[in-house]
Design a protein that fits this description.
Structural class: alpha/beta
Helix content: 40-55%
Strand order of the largest sheet: 3-2-1-4-6-5
Order of helices and strands: HEHEHEHHEHEEHHHHH
Distance between the termini: 26 Å
Shape: elongated
Largest sheet: 6 strands, mixed
Radius of gyration: 20 Å
Number of helices: 11
Mean pLDDT: 90
C-alpha cells in the first residue's frame, strides 16, 4: 500500500483530475481518507459504483450526502451504458475549465484522469465499461491491479491504479463492511466468523431478504441457528450429518457480493 500511494503521488503531476470510486453498498467505509489528503489540489469526481446492488433511494441519499460536502458525484453501474455515459460526461464537466484553458492556448490533447479507490470497488471494471471492451485487468477479489495502466478512451486517458486501503481501522463496523464487500484479502479472513457477523447484521436490517433467500422458518433466531438451517436447506453437510460451516459461510458471503441476496445497503 505504501508503494502504491507513492506511485500515485508521483503520477498526480501528470493528471488533470481524479475519479475516486466508492462502493454504493458501503460508501463511507469504502472511502480512504488518506486519498482525500493526497488529492486535495486536484479536481475529484466521486463515482458511486455498483449502484445496481442497492435500492434507488439509497443511491440518491448517498449522492446527496456527497454533494452536501461540495463533492462532485455520479452513480455508476458497469452493466448500464447510460450510467457510464453519465460518468464520461461528468468528467468533462468537472474539468471544463481545464478544457477551456487548453482550447484558448490552441492545445487539443486528451484529458488525463487517475482512477483511484480501495480494492475491489470496481475501478478497472468502470474503465472497461467506458472503453467498451476489456482494457484493464479485473477480478472479483481484492488486489487484481498491481501496477499503473494508462487506457485511452476517446478524449480521455485514464490511469488505473492499485487499490489502496487506509493503514488502520478505527471503526470496526466499517471494517466488517469492507470484508463483506470483498475489499480485504479473503485469505486473511475467517469466513465462518464473517458470515456469522453478516447474518447477525442483515437479519436486523433486511430480515425478509434473508428469509426469502434461504427459506428460513424463523429469521429472528440466533445467527448460529440460522446458519444451521441454511446448512440443512442447502445440503451443506459433512459425513455423519455434521454441518459444513465453511461451505455455508462461503455461500452466504458470495450470495451477498453477487447481489443474489437482494439489494442491501450496509450503512
Amino acid at each position: 500500500m505504501t508503494a502504491a500511494m507513492r506511485m500515485m503521488e508521483q503520477s498526480l503531476k501528470a493528471v488533470d483530475g481524479v475519479i475516486t470510486v466508492l462502493d454504493a453498498r458501503a460508501p463511507a467505509a469504502s472511502e480512504n481518507k488518506k486519498l482525500n489528503k493526497l488529492f486535495e489540489n486536484k479536481k475529484v469526481l466521486f463515482a458511486l459504483n455498483k449502484c445496481d446492488l442497492v435500492e434507488k433511494k439509497d443511491v440518491t441519499r448517498s449522492l446527496e450526502n456527497l454533494r452536501a460536502q461540495n463533492r462532485a458525484a455520479v452513480a455508476v453501474s458497469a452493466a448500464d451504458k447510460k450510467s457510464t455515459d453519465k460518468l464520461y460526461a461528468a468528467v468533462f464537466s468537472l474539468l471544463s475549465e481545464k478544457l477551456e484553458r487548453n482550447k484558448a492556448k490552441g492545445i487539443f490533447k486528451p484529458l488525463r484522469v487517475m482512477v483511484a479507490g480501495i480494492p475491489n470497488t470496481g475501478k478497472s471494471t468502470i474503465i472497461n465499461a467506458l472503453a467498451g471492451g476489456k482494457k484493464a485487468a479485473t477480478g472479483d477479489k481484492a488486489g487484481v491491479t498491481r501496477g499503473k495502466q494508462w487506457i485511452r478512451i476517446g478524449a480521455l486517458e485514464l490511469l488505473d491504479t492499485p487499490g489502496t486501503m487506509p493503514p488502520a481501522f478505527e471503526n470496526q463496523v466499517m471494517a466488517k463492511h469492507l470484508a463483506y464487500i470483498g475489499s480485504m484479502n479473503d485469505a486473511n479472513l475467517d469466513f465462518n466468523d464473517l458470515a456469522f457477523e453478516f447474518i447477525a447484521e442483515i437479519k436486523e436490517k433486511y430480515p425478509e431478504l434473508l428469509r426469502e433467500r434461504y427459506s428460513l422458518s424463523d429469521v429472528s433466531a440466533e445467527p448460529l441457528d440460522i446458519m444451521n438451517e441454511i446448512c440443512l436447506n442447502r445440503g451443506f453437510l459433512l459425513k455423519g450429518g455434521e454441518y459444513d460451516y465453511e461451505r455455508c459461510a462461503s455461500a452466504v458471503i458470495d450470495d451477498f457480493r453477487k447481489g443474489r441476496t437482494g439489494k442491501i445497503f450496509l450503512e
